[in-house]
Description:
By secondary structure, this protein is mainly beta. The protein is about 0% helix and about 45% strand.
Amino acid sequence: MKIRLFLPLICLAMVFQTCKKSEIQKEQPIIEISNPEERDFLKTVNVKGALKVSWDTTTSVIQVLLPESYTDNIVSLDLTFHDGASLQYYEGDTYITENKVGFIFKGARPVDFTIRKKTGERWFAKDYKVYVEHQGKLTAEITSPLEMQAIYGESRSTIYTQIKLLSGVGTIPERPEDLKTLSAGLADLEKNITVKGSAYASHLDFPNAQSLIASSKLSVSLMYGDKIFTFPNTYQPVRGDVRAGMHTFSFFAKKKAIEISGGYFINGIKYQVKMENDFVKEPIWLNAEVQTPANLTFVIPEGVTNGDYLFSIYEGENLLSSTNFLVSDENLPVKGIGKLWTEKLEYPSGSILFKDSKRVSLNKGQVFYADPKPWIYGDYYKPWDPNKKMPDLELKNNKSVIVISAKTNGDPSYADASIPLYYCEYKIPADIVSGNYEARMIYENGEKSAPWWALVNIN
């Protein structure tokens, strides 16, 4: 094995490869060679500020040793090549040029790069891997609050925070044979409780920290091999923004437990669900019970009238979300309208369909859109059919009944673009009488849906 040593020369950078290759590389065959000395590729490697740069020509491993005084986040390799050889890189790379390979190294994985060479009509390539060791004490800083996070379907909780590594750690591993890992510890100094956690280049995660949620004085430590760093301050975990949502592909059955997911939910806080629509005199208030930090449940009583309701979830006096859903008896399916909206959207499943529900006011002659509930799907991996029959829309008040024919639309992005999701386009007649209207869908077989939860105002 031959080792070549080079003095450090230049500054730093980072490798991010995009999927778009430069034109000169397009459709050119690459042939791997087993013996790197059959053809010369890389000539010299230099890193400005490094104590030592070693290059193993047998394994093609480049080892960079940085001193404690090296404070930059990026290490950059300055390369020269033998005649005819060049660095393979891609348009859009941030820290790579025709003779430099750079990357953010602290806590990152070792980085690979490839040098290519054409001999006659044949292309050859050689891969190299860069490891970085950073001398000195392990130091870092916490850059965000310690946030409590709920884990869906589990009673345990996690505490999460963002960090910035400052010194004492290079790539992980920092050498090919190195087995060290970066880890973290979270301790309650008053209760003498310690929880182990995972450490990454940008954050710490303590996945079994439910015993420390109420702590007010937490100490955070970072470990890497025999290096230990304890952050100088103490911390109290906080809740981030509280989320709460419900979902069903059909309807919610009465007398059955209904799940609200999100969090972070806390025992002792009052959670309620308000059910309302424009066809009941008074809203219905239901208590929701904390099951885990990520889950609440509630039950719709038997006496509630079947139909479409706006469900508003509250934590104390704070409104968390409002979305409409259908309600019926367990063995009595019901159809309805999901959302009504006015903006032309190419991918409504990526935006409006999962947002809070709001009342709609429309003008005469205006085009608007609606999704039937339950949703109507196309065939897997096939385009949506513009001729598919979709339900018409009935607008009704005590003075008139108007039926508007549906124009078929399809969202090709639903379920990772594996199946099209159909929705409807309608246009308000220009001669309709202004007022508030019930809106319901009429299917080809004459079946009518429940009216949308809110009256539609037409000006």
